[in-house]
Amino acid sequence: MSGTGVNYRDFVPLPEKTNAVGDPDQYEQAETLEHGATASHALATAAQNEKGVAQEAYEHDVKDLGWNEPQDNVPSPLVGGMDNEHLWMLVRRFNKQIYHVKEITTPVPGNLDLNIADEDEFSPDKLRSTIERLYMTIGIGLIGFGKHIVRLRSWREKRRTAAFCAVYCLAWLSDLLVPTFTCMIITLIVFPPSRSFLFPPAPLALVSSSSGGVQKPPAGVLGSTDSATGAPEQYHGEAVEQEASNFVNGIAHVALSSATGKHPQGEESEDGAPSDSSPDPTTLAVGASNARVSAGGNNVSENRDKTKQPMEAAMWNKMRPLMHALQDAADGWERFANALSPTRPFPQEGPRIRLASLLVPLLAISLVVTSYMFMKAVTLGAGFGFFGDPVIMRGFHLLNERFPNWQKLLEVRNTLLKGVPTNAQLTITLLRVGEANKAPLPPPPQTHEAPPDQPAEITSAHLDSTGADAPLGASKEEIEGTVFEARFIEDLQMRLHVLSRGNGPRPSESK
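^ thats the sequence. predicted structure below, dont judge the formating
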């Protein structure tokens, strides 16, 4: 894929370049951004139709876009098609995720740099950052998915659930469940407006995971729309980041409490913070655990315990591949998200069409394959996988001989999601945009004050409905029991009153 256009190769899941695998020792070097060492470099210097302040060319001096200015004095938007708070969120998370980078002089996979190094060493700080990233991507995504399912099953939004039920029944009666489901997935991929129509947005903290209706946010106030608790935030994304930090702290607390064998509520709090000379808490936890075992009568000295060192070595040796697996999972989730909702300057149509094109053969096959044929094929594959090990291993051996590193060529970043960035790759590209135009992007604003304990502004982009349904099927009493801005409550109550008279415009126009 070039940095300025799209061709037919962008719509098929074939690797753009194979020299990253076929000739991994090839030496490549670029002196400037204009040389286009990767797709990220090429896109950073390519002309864009929608420009922000940082994308305007400055011929002579470096342009100061507000590095030492308050947020209100920073021009907006810095990058075309993206508000400043979203940009700052990406940069904040980039700074937490990236610890160090190394120069690479060989072809990069997927034609994008800033990939996780295979030899990246494990450290507890990196593991913490990875788990926080998993929560902010996969965790929040799964919470949102689960609440959409609960909303559909609750029948509170009667017209929408009835429409889904009717289509399901017709597809079941016609033996077209798989084609119908596949068509819906293709529509959601190719036509983004269908996503908010079939699955209207709602703040995560406002939706009850049990009833599918309105609940009071766990934080007591709806201060953010994309967090599980609804906690207030100064800037977009900060509430989710704080949730992720507390999520990891909770895991660590449970692990340490389990190692020491104490109940946290039974411990007395001590005044004063620990000094810098305090012992390592992990060492204290292990020592306490050993003492507890010894007190139980199983007193085995370290010299006689032949299991301690092998088990510790096995744990530390396995932590690096585990951390890499978690990082790969987060990378894959971010790539799929950026393929479905691309951010400029990356291509807007190619990745979505490529994803949908893979489902078209599945749609065609599902129209002719019966359930009997499908089950026979599945059981045949299961039998071959169980009993065909000699043939399978022989095939892998031939592949490794003729095509070394063939597994890397089949990675999704080289095929299905080629040219689609992770959030870190997207951020480095946006930073390069400012560098290419001599207008470095200002850092995220710093604040040392607690966010205001007041509701966030709610619009139809955050809370909407399909057809004549009320948002979340909420009644007047339920709305009054939640935390909204007063003007939004009045507006929503007025719309519910109009709907109750059977004369309702679609309640998706609130501002």
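Confidence is low (pLDDT under 50) at residues 1-5, 503-511.
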